[in-house]
Amino acid sequence: MTTSDKVALVTGAARGIGLATAKRFLAEGYKVALLDINSETLHAAHAALAQEHDIIAIECDVSQPDAVTLAFDAVGRQFGRLDALVNNAGIAIFKPILDVTYEDWSRVLAVNLTGPFLCTQAAAPMMRDGGGGAVVNITSISGLRASTLRTAYGTSKAGLAHLTKQQAAELAQYNIRVNAVAPGPVDTAMAKAVHTPEIRADYHDHMPLNRYGLEEELAEAIFFLCSERASYITGQILCVDGGFDSTGIGLP
Ligand code: NAD
């Protein structure tokens, strides 16, 4: 099978790391389903790419089981198979631990952890029936080290790291590999919203490469893990973080 017959679905694909990842798959000839909760940015991304590429845009909240089922059914009808799933959709709420509300906690866990659970449950039968596939979950260095302000966010990403290993262990029987990419800071809209000047300074102080990552640098690692070149890699968490994790130093 050539990559032009292959299909990838990227969640949170309307902007940021997800959009860069969708473009990376398109550059390799994949057909791509862009999935996002934000209809305005989703349709803008679709309009920018649709003239030259075989893509569909699906508006969907990954935390809602019925919406996820409908979305994956639409991919099956449109493309007939699914080879790669990137569980990238995520939200960040950074607050001191005593200010985190039940609503904050529930929403972050629902999008960042339940979303990848639901999407992978929907994707796996399609991949199995097509002979196999690859899933990449987007975790975070905040799920590897505890630090202030990240009670809900860091816990959701730590949970997703474990879910990755669990899914890898159980889905291998269907020739489905599951890995995670743990980004360091990337200057997307999300980072602009939650990274205060103090947080930015902390990251720079603690990263050997001393800079934020680029969306394209994340997309490259995500694509690699989905490709045949990673055929013997499963259950791994690849830090793409300018060396942050290697220092063993946590943020304040
Ligand atoms: P972003 O906010 O720019 O993009 C996230 C996309 O996900 C948006 O288009 C948004 O509409 C979509 N989304 C949010 N909730 C959704 C839902 N319920 N259903 C479907 N789509 C939804 O963020 P980004 O920086 O590109 O982050 C992408 C992923 O990378 C996230 O999982 C994030 O936690 C992770 N990450 C980012 C950084 C960083 O510094 N930017 C660092 C570590 C991890």
Automatic annotation (TrEMBL):
GO terms for molecular function: oxidoreductase activity, acting on the CH-OH group of donors, NAD or NADP as acceptor. SMART domains: PKS_KR (SM00822). Pfam families: adh_short_C2. InterPro entries: KR_dom (IPR057326), NAD(P)-bd_dom_sf (IPR036291), Sc_DH/Rdtase_CS (IPR020904), SDR_fam (IPR002347). One of its GO terms (biological process) is fatty acid elongation. Residues 6-184 form the Ketoreductase domain. It comes from the Bacteria. NCBIfam families: PRK07231.1, PRK12826.1-2. Belongs to the short-chain dehydrogenases/reductases (SDR) family. PANTHER family: OXIDOREDUCTASE (PTHR42760:SF123), SHORT-CHAIN DEHYDROGENASES/REDUCTASES FAMILY MEMBER (PTHR42760). This is SDR family NAD(P)-dependent oxidoreductase. It comes from Undibacter mobilis. The lineage of its organism: Bacteria, Pseudomonadati, Pseudomonadota, Alphaproteobacteria, Hyphomicrobiales.
